[in-house]
């Protein structure tokens, strides 16, 4: 099994740690491509229009400026750098040694700056998303697709690939049809009608990923065994979404079911759907 995650937009910048060493990262076939992207990122970060090109908020000005010396910034493990709802709920940085070893072997985080990363790779915090523009290079997705294809296609031949990526990061690598591809989504059902859950779905994707890494049973090897693993969570999870104004939760969700939709066409993804019930 291989689980694909998007990076988090927000990242925890380490205050100490060794500088970046590209040769130490996993997927060594990406080293030259990583160097090219980082060189362009450093150049862009020195420009007056850097925030616009990188689509970063004004509050990230200092982070962007620091990227002019991207190779000199302190590094930490990727599972300590990436934060946000999905990573926090998965609890990847706080797993037992056994679960962490499984996660390091079975999870890849897509990265606009590095292509793809293992959780144990030591990287600096950075500001570069899949929708950003780097002068002189193709779009992020177009740039990384051939590099990731050469590095990953053979690895997933005959394997189960669980795709938790968001749209922009899906464009970076098209999983080959030789793998069994399953994407993960969440819906709520009301009066017999399904509605897609967007932001809060990150919580439940993180829940599923953390469960897959921690459960004592062997990792799923097919869509059917993935459904069985996901069913172990049904009825045991309630989630109060991010508080709105006044500090009251916007929504409380309960995981009440799991379904698997077949692939709509050959080579496309099956869809594992987490069915949520919205409480009043």
Quickly give the structural class. alpha/beta
Mean pLDDT: 92
* Dominant shape: globular
Oligomer: single chain
Outline the biggest β-sheet: 9 strands, mixed
Low confidence ranges: none
Radius of gyration: 19 Å
| N- to C-terminal distance | 37 Å
What fraction of the residues are assigned to beta strands by DSSP? 15-25%
Number of helices: 10
| SSE pattern, N- to C-terminal | EHHHEHHHEEEHEHEEHHEEE
Number of domains: 1
Q: What is the helix content?
A: 25-40%
Number of strands: 11
Could you characterize what this model shows?
Helix content is 31%, strand content 21%. It has one domain. Strand 10 (252-261) and strand 11 form a beta hairpin. It is an alpha/beta fold and 280 residues long.
What is the topological layout?
Elements: E1 2-5, H1 31-45, H2 50-54, H3 61-66, E2 76-77, H4 78-81, H5 85-90, H6 97-106, E3 107-111, E4 115-117, E5 122-123, H7 140-152, E6 160-163, H8 167-170, E7 180-190, E8 193-196, H9 201-214, H10 223-231, E9 238-240, E10 252-261, E11 270-279
Parallel strand pairs: 1-3, 1-6, 6-7, 7-11
Antiparallel strand pairs: 2-5, 3-4, 7-8, 9-10, 10-11
Outline:
This protein has helices spanning 31-45, 50-54, 61-66, 78-81, 85-90, 97-106, 140-152, 167-170, 201-214, 223-231; strands at residues 2-5, 76-77, 107-111, 115-117, 122-123, 160-163, 180-190, 193-196, 238-240, 252-261, 270-279.
Sum up the structure in keywords.
single chain; about 280 residues; alpha/beta; two-stranded antiparallel sheet; 10 helices; 11 strands; about 20% strand
